């Protein structure tokens, strides 16, 4: 298990009062899947998290005179390692708050640990509904969107037509939650669309021929518009599905949003549409302007991606929460963060009091006809407001 500690603080510590100098640093554990197929997600989360701390503390890397110490732990996308990493963070490292992780299955394994140690856990970027649903506890907050928010945003792009839908998803918590949420979301927005087939494939699938044939058979004779909705993390099946020529049956693919390297492979499909959590060119606010400029400066002109924004949101929530609570006492943090509205690159987010899920905007996108490069890819159809997505409360609080 990778473990790395970063002590960050302004160089002006001598100017602080003696009492402040003696204060212990604020310890934050960042747990992520840096080893494995979601490595790109983890690297982005870390980059965004550190930038978020920089922005929210105005470059001091201190909160109320206390330096921030970030302890990094690699759970390798394995639930048992994620659980052990969080136990070590709370028990041995004595962290004040933790953030994680990349995999929904790993995040679910961490939830009982937060409750056992009575410490706050910010879930970022794991998506499964169960995290703020049936498996939730009061120590868990989530800046990441959940599967239902993804589904409601996607449904908002499909609600105005009579559509037959087949789905393709990974056969684990993220994929199955995503499809269950899609069904509920279509009903919630009053869509006429109907799901006529569900297809689940192992996470490591690379040959989609058999899955695609079952999907095509279920859709090809439908008289309505025909769409395949894909819920997938990691290497995306869209290009391989398109190689199987769904257009011969009048079938369209709706892939959802993804990281830039994945979407760059979709440039040959102009007009492709979907919903996305974040795209660097969409939000118009000072936080995103700063993020885009700083990230480009530090990454040879490349813009921030999907999970960079998520990492930054988690960091900004922590800084705002600690400031509001006046420290890192868990009960004071929970009281401060329930219902708290805070800035992010996407604009304002609010932790809903009932389940601590961050309510947030989403975006309806369309692939540009002639993208000039591999990052300037999407045009904004519209911003989908948080209050348009009627997010149900799924926990048992």
From TrEMBL:
Residues 25-369 form the Leucine-binding protein domain. The keyword Transport applies. The keyword Protein transport does not apply. It comes from the Bacteria. InterPro entries: BCAA_transport, Leu-bd, Peripla_BP_I. Pfam families: Peripla_BP_6. CDD domains: PBP1_SBP-like (cd06328). GO terms for biological process: amino acid transport. It comes from Reyranella soli. Belongs to the leucine-binding protein family. This is ABC transporter substrate-binding protein. Residues 1-20 form the signal peptide. Keywords: Amino-acid transport, Signal, Transport.
